[in-house]
From TrEMBL:
Domain MD-2-related lipid-recognition: from-to ranges: 28-150
Protein name: Phosphatidylglycerol/phosphatidylinositol transfer protein
Organism per entry: Linnemannia elongata AG-77
Keywords associated with the record: Signal
InterPro entries: Ig_E-set, ML_dom
Signal sequence, start to end: 1-20
UniProt entry tagged with the keyword Signal: yes
Length: 158
């Protein structure tokens, strides 16, 4: 009986390892702290997950815009480990969206925003990191604020 239990535990651990390496890492939460956001998000994904240093990653947000995204919009990406900022990136959101074929202004409508960036090399891999993705419009209104927990490589490779 104990031998069967041990075999079952080994099988579950092996399945968990394969599942973890396939990319089911990211859980999102709203970090707008009660402020209204211009994008009511219906779906959100991060790919690849985990993100890999020096490689592109894409945040894809689908939802309804209550205000257009205008020239001068910004995206900030902050990574925290043990509540300490360990990664920062700031980009012109319209430039990033234009690289994927979406020109600003983006009108009030149901839309999909595909935001692809390169994870800068001044970040280490393999640790659980909290990432905040904060998009603001040119008038400083929040477009969205989403927090992602990325568990790092945990044995996977990029």
């Amino acid at each position: 009986m104990q031998f069967t239990s041990v075999l079952a535990a080994i099988a579950i651990a092996a399945i968990s390892t394969v599942s973890a390496q396939s990319g089911a890492y990211t859980k999102f939460t709203d970090c707008a702290a009660g402020k209204p956001s211009d994008l009511a998000i219906s779906s959100l994904s991060l790919s690849p997950s985990p993100m890999c240093v020096g490689q592109d990653y894409c945040l894809t947000a689908t939802g309804a815009l209550s205000a257009p995204i205008t020239k001068g919009a910004k995206l900030g990406v902050w990574g925290k480990y043990l509540n300490r900022i360990v990664y920062r990136d700031s980009v012109d959101l319209c430039d990033v969206l234009a690289a994927n074929g979406q020109e600003c202004p983006i009108p009030e409508t149901t839309t999909e925003l595909k935001i692809c960036l390169k994870l800068k090399p001044d970040f280490w891999e393999g640790v659980t990191t909290q990432f905040d993705f904060i998009a603001t419009n040119a008038n400083d209104d929040t477009i969205f604020c989403q927090r992602a927990l990325d568990r790092g490589l945990q044995g996977a490779t990029c």
